Amino acid sequence: MIMSNLKGILFIILFHDISALPGNSFLKIREIVESQREEDAVFEQKKLYGSSQIVEEVLLPQPIDHFDALNSEMYNQKVYINTENWIKPSGPIFLFIGGEGALSNRSAYSGHHVEMAKRYGAMVVAAEHRFYGSSINDNGLHLDQLEHLSSQQGLADLTRVHKYITDRYELTSNKWISFGGSYPGALSAWFRLKYPHLVYGAVASSAPVQAQTNFEGYNEVVAQSLTDSTVGGSQQCIKQIVEAFQRIDSMIQANQTVQLEKDFLSCGPLSEKNDQMVFVNNLAGIFAGVVQYNNEVPGLNIQHLCKQMTKSDDSYKNLQMVYKMAMKLLNQSCVDNSYSNFLSQFNNQTVDQAASGVGIRQWTWQTCSQFGYYQTCDEGTSCPFSRLLTLESNLVICRDIYKISPSSVPNFVEFTNEYYGANRPKGTRVLFVNGSIDPWHFLSVLKSDVSLNETAVFINGTAHCADMASDRSTDPQSLKDARLMIQKVVHGWLQES
């Protein structure tokens, strides 16, 4: 282990994947990815540690509101601790913080951060994000409680995790280094920015540090990725996709919805405008999901998708085939395109602390109150999907579910950018890592700033948070090189006095 001249470092790792108002198809693809990650993690644990239980679970009391001295309400934050590799008392510690969903204990024993934990003799601590998974009170989904769900409150939670670990293990001069992917990647950078006396450096993977109401760039990057020959895309592929969605829009405008219901196996009618919006969102979600999670599941990748989309000259028929193949993968006999059913997941205020996956009601609250991130398909952009994917169709959720005026959302987003600095956060010792085909790189930091010791690593041909996974023999060389760069930067921070 490389421990010479190290005085002890604490690593905080934050990770999850995000999307704004995702359709059912996108969420189901994400569920498959999560299942694959869990399977890979279990295999990795057995390989590294055998069958022994190496992770301890702790419930850490946290204030509902860190900034209101008159509010005494608390909640319990779930924290996992893995001391298997820790060299006491000065060995580094990785604290992995979850994002907008339930956190598995695999976060404490699997991933690139665990590989580095072994190298540097680190303890791994994983903390679930407030109001997600089981880190929520029974009334936590009520609107008056969601007011306490914010990135600022989440960062304040980290300070108490810091104190808990420091007190419990009697830490003294230990440095803290934060790691994170996606929304928690932004939290990682912001933790360094707002609490520099607690965290020495930060690695922020696929981190959308710039909030944006109308996130047109998401689908523009999806389009670029579907033309990238290095990952199996092509100009013919994107041409077919554009033509297919143009035909669908024309059929909707011509009220040929009965034919669409038949061709794309809709569970219900598509006569209403809102149901049509959900329908095209579900169609686009297949492509967005494959691009965002390219190659995380065998066969679920851009190359296979584009092969199917270019099988014939009939783009509409090709899209039908792709969609039916996706339905088979997702184990669906028909697709629920009901807007009322779509809304029900946002209206559900019943807390299930055993639930897995994304907290839809909670995360959508955060998009309305802080971040935006609404993935649209506006005229004049290179988005290849339906023009029914408008900003208005996203913002109406904020009004109808959370009583937030659509006109207020841009103001909340502007405040977030003013508070954190958008994609020019000016934090020192921050490493931003992004993949070229990841749509979220559009809102991250892509250029290094030597004066701030702010480094950017851009990985050709890789998707969302790919660098955070453990090494695989099938990884492209660019990804292997990026992990070595991350390790080099972190090691450099560890060596600094």
**Distance between the amino and carboxyl termini:** 19 Å
DSSP helix count? 16
| Total beta strands | 11
Radius of gyration using CA atoms only? 22 Å
Which shape, going by the Cα principal axes?
Answer: globular
Structural class: alpha/beta
Strand composition percent: 5-15%
List low-pLDDT spans: 1-16
What is the percent of helical residues? 40-55%
Question: Mean pLDDT across all residues, rounded?
Answer: 89
Largest sheet: 9 strands, mixed
Topology pattern, helix = H, strand = E: EHEEEHEHHEHEEHHHHHHHHEHHEEH
Strand order of the largest sheet: 2-3-5-4-1-6-7-10-11
Molecular structure report:
With 497 residues, the chain is of the alpha/beta class. Helix content is 43%, strand content 13%. The chain has 16 helices and eleven strands. The protein has helices at 24-49, 112-120, 143-146, 151-168, 183-194, 216-225, 235-253, 257-263, 273-292, 302-309, 315-329, 339-347, 360-371, 391-402, 409-420, 477-495, and strands at 9-15, 56-63, 74-82, 93-98, 123-127, 175-181, 201-205, 212-214, 372-374, 430-435, 454-459. Strands 2-3-5-4-1-6-7-10-11 form a nine-stranded mixed β-sheet, sandwiched between helices. The protein has a two-stranded parallel ribbon with strand order 8-9. Strand 6 (175-181), helix 5 (183-194) and strand 7 form a beta-alpha-beta unit. Helix 13 (360-371) packs across helix 14 (391-402). The protein is globular. The chain starts with 8 loop residues before the first strand and ends with a helix.
